[in-house]
Amino acid sequence: MRKKKYAILAVIPARGGSKSIPRKNIKPLAGKPLLTYSITEALKSKLLTRVVVSSEDKRIIRTAKRYGAEAPFVRPKALATDTALAVPTIQHAVREMERQENTTYDYVVMLQPTTPLRTTRHIDACLLQLIRTKADSVISVVRVWDKHPYRMKTIKRGRLVDFGKETKENMPRQSLPPVYLRNGAIYACKRNVLMRQNSFKGKDSRPYIMTEEESVNIDSVLDFQIAELLIKNRRSKR
């Protein structure tokens, strides 16, 4: 374990039971397993104390270790189903690590492997914001444009009904009030907020804004193709 001013645990949740894309977390993306992009960036962080992968899948665990992450426990199968929630999954990881180390962490970060364009810079910026503001959490978000709530509809009795009320019909996107969506890249919070309040947010949650490109979230084959293009483009500029 690296010595830091604060004890900060990063957990990368990577179950093997994805239905949309089997073993999505180790599917090759631009020459490397998807999971490894999160591992590589987390290990370069100047603030994280420890980086662990939480999985029930032996192949994923082997892949994580091969790329430098630790996987010092096996996630219970009950926390690796399609309906398993993120909070108890990360709580399990915290309990396991604190039991093994006989210590208590100050902060916990969840880094989902499905956002491979998140970098060390983003991780450390989130953590610095969390520490400096003394907020309960900092969560990464992306601004919503074309899928703005004002443009969304519900269907009632076969008729389209506005989800949100525009001040003018069909407003140009530049005139829409700013709205942000969690992009799934970074959830950083105080340890006690997660463990005692069963929440990543707490009462004082701050935003860390990322671009649309940085926020690509992989859930389909098309997402893989988009992410691969962006990663190759990023590499070509180095």
Automatic annotation (TrEMBL):
Gene3D superfamilies: Spore Coat Polysaccharide Biosynthesis Protein SpsA, Chain A. The keyword Nucleotidyltransferase applies. GO terms for molecular function: N-acylneuraminate cytidylyltransferase activity. Transmembrane segments: none annotated. InterPro entries: CMP-NeuNAc_synthase, Cytidylyl_trans, Nucleotide-diphossugar_trans. Keywords: Nucleotidyltransferase, Transferase. It holds the Pfam family CTP_transf_3. This is N-acylneuraminate cytidylyltransferase. It comes from Candidatus Niyogibacteria bacterium CG10_big_fil_rev_8_21_14_0_10_46_36. The lineage of its organism: Bacteria, Candidatus Niyogiibacteriota.
